[in-house]
Design a protein that fits this description.
This is Transketolase. It holds the Pfam family Transket_pyr. One of its GO terms (molecular function) is transketolase activity. It is a single chain. By secondary structure, this protein is of the alpha/beta class. The chain has two domains: about 160 residues, Rossmann fold; about 130 residues, Rossmann fold (3-Layer(aba) Sandwich). Helices cover about 35% and strands about 20% of the residues. It is built from twelve helices and twelve strands. The chain has a seven-stranded mixed sheet with strand order 2-1-3-4-6-5-10, with helices on both faces. A five-stranded mixed sheet has the order 7-9-8-11-12, with helices on both faces. Strand 5, helix 7 and strand 6 form a beta-alpha-beta unit.
Length: about 300
């Protein structure tokens, strides 16, 4: 199976052909995949070199000129390093664009901590108006990318601010995502587990045989409060577990806000704050952060208690 990032350049090349508003801004990373698009659209596929602040600034400048910019590099270089430009060039100037990241939390362990960004969604949470999409499969990545760009067949035109978080971690099969709502994958009465993006397969394995509702979230901002309230209201327990592929607890405030008038408990599971200083492999990092199915099951049942056991 191809990866989410494998889909990125072909999808964007088609969107560049379809819509003269669309532009792509790169900072060396990913340039090879856009060689044909650069020849076809030299004024709308721009490589700024290894200058991440300029990467974001150039994208905002294209938005000011009336284009729909899609800005791409590794998450650590896209969200963390040029954060001031995201805050000012897009936010303060009141323009929209699409940030598309790669590498995610620990997709490339050999790159070390400089190439990891488990805090990216949390950082964007400090800003107003950013939609955040976390696909769990390449097919979902294509759907959510088109939704975020807001152009192409069937898309609703958009000038909003959006972040699309691509990962090489993937679920085995795609779900029918729409860029808005959480999906109900499994129903139960002993609590609610929200699986974000590529965490779904791990959560389904971890909760096999448990009497819990599993919600699948690929668009986490705006947070689908209605779906969570419905899921909690359908059960006997207002206990919620969030399993996110980035910093643990990133969405606990959103879940608490959704249930502000309902007695409830929330447990946020995800990537820990402590830096893992050995490269290892992705599976090693998943286990170290307690995101493998066996550890998730222990943590989920420990929190939900006897009511979760069928």
């Amino acid at each position: 199976m191809d990866t989410m990032r494998d889909r990125f350049a072909p999808v964007m090349t088609r969107l560049l052909d379809e819509d003269p508003r669309v532009a792509v801004v790169l900072a060396e990373i990913g340039v090879d995949a856009f060689k044909e698009a650069m020849r076809a659209h030299p004024d709308r596929v721009i490589n700024v070199g290894i200058r991440e602040q300029l990467l974001v600034g150039a994208g905002a400048g294209l938005a000011l000129a009336g284009l729909r910019p899609v800005v791409h590099t590794f998450a650590s270089f896209l969200v963390e390093r040029p954060f001031e430009q995201i805050k000012l060039d897009f936010g303060h100037q009141g323009v929209g664009g699409v940030l598309v990241s790669a590498a995610a939390s620990f997709d490339w362990p050999e790159g070390g901590f400089t190439h990891m960004a488990p805090g990216d969604v949390g950082v964007l949470d400090t800003l107003d108006g950013w939609a955040v999409h976390v696909p769990g499969h390449p097919d979902e990545a294509e759907t959510l990318l088109r939704h975020a760009v807001g152009t192409g067949a069937g898309a609703v035109p958009s000038d909003d601010k959006a972040y699309v978080r691509l990962s090489v971690q993937s679920n085995a099969a795609p779900m029918p995502v729409d860029g808005k709502r959480f999906l109900t994958v499994r129903e139960g009465r002993g609590g609610v587990v929200v699986a974000v993006g590529p965490m779904l397969d791990h959560v389904l394995a971890a909760t096999e045989g448990l009497d819990v509702t599993v919600l699948y979230a690929t668009t986490v901002r705006p947070f689908d409060a209605d779906a969570l309230r419905r899921a909690v209201g359908a059960g006997t327990s207002a206990d919620v577990v969030l399993v996110e592929p980035y910093l643990a607890g990133t969405s606990t405030a959103a879940a608490n806000d959704a249930l502000v008038d309902v007695p409830h408990r929330v447990l946020g599971l995800g990537v820990g704050r402590a830096e893992l200083r050995r490269y290892g492999r992705q599976d090693d990092h998943l286990r170290a952060h307690g995101l493998d199915p066996a550890t998730l099951r222990t943590r989920i049942t420990g929190f939900l208690g006897a009511g979760a056991r069928a």
